Amino acid sequence: MGLGKKLAKHRSSFDSRVCGSVGWQPAEMIGIRAARALLSPIPNETSSSSSSSSPRRFDEKKTKKGTPTGPRLTHHLPPVLKGRLTKAVDVFSAGCIVYYVLTRGEHPFGTEPEREYKIIHNKPDLSGLDDLPLAQELVRAMIAQNPKDRISAQDAVNHPLFWDDSKSLGFLQDVSDRVVKVNSFALCAMMETTGDKVVGLQWDKKLHESLLADLGRYRSYNFTSVCDCLRVIRNKKNHYLELPKVAKAQLGSLPSGFLKYFATRFPRLLIHSYITIGSFYVSRREEDSSAIDFETFETYYKDLSERRLQHFCEMNRRRPCRGWWPRADIWAM
Description:
Elements: H1 27-39, E1 41-43, E2 53-55, H2 70-75, H3 88-102, H4 115-120, H5 133-142, H6 153-157, H7 165-182, H8 185-192, H9 195-198, H10 209-215, H11 226-238, H12 245-251, H13 256-265, H14 269-284, H15 294-301, H16 306-318
Antiparallel strand pairs: 1-2
Helix pairs in contact: 3-5, 7-11, 7-14, 14-16
């Protein structure tokens, strides 16, 4: 697939040949490969000369119905996929490999006979990563059909899937801190969008009784709220040493055990917060610099491309509104 070759910054490929494993190439490469196959010369069977050749002819009647080859394949390619190949080709292949490794042998576009058909028609199945939303979001970004929508290699390596436990837990704490500090109903409303899929309708049911008993000693919580769930994580991390021994044993040690406790119960919380804060970060940075603490979140977003940040905004716009508005006491410390 060419993944082991290093290109100079100004180059997109080493040559004009189409190479790579069938079923692991993006739609734009499949289309070029099919078009070149139709135009390439083939030996003239009626000639005794081995050097004589004629243009390749394609008989669509002899093609298996539904097989995406030749004219039928290139016909389904959107115009944007018929341009020049770029480094995004390798990002697509790498995304398929990431999925293959994490699912222990599955392919995001199914079994071999149907892969190229599904690649051309943009029909991936990432259900094998339903329990790993961080990885699922990364793979989806890597195998986007339009190469212009595909995540860059630089943005991919900065994805939260590759953060260590300390950075991941610190991010969740920073998000909760800023929701309180900024006192923004707009930010909190964005955090609550699709909250039922992020923390559920009764997230307290996922916590141990000893932890719930400790929660009720100091503050009240809305057990349907994403922001309140983050507030629990922040408060328990800040007051970890004051927790009862039973609660500390169940939560595990900081940062890894503590993060695992909440990540296994709310696996979508980190990626949801990452996309939401990224979207808010972009939308407010020029409108009102006081709307969010930019210095805090520079640590998490500074190495991302502008295209990736704008993608967060697009993802956030596509989310359905939950119809939830924060209580007046949500800002209580």
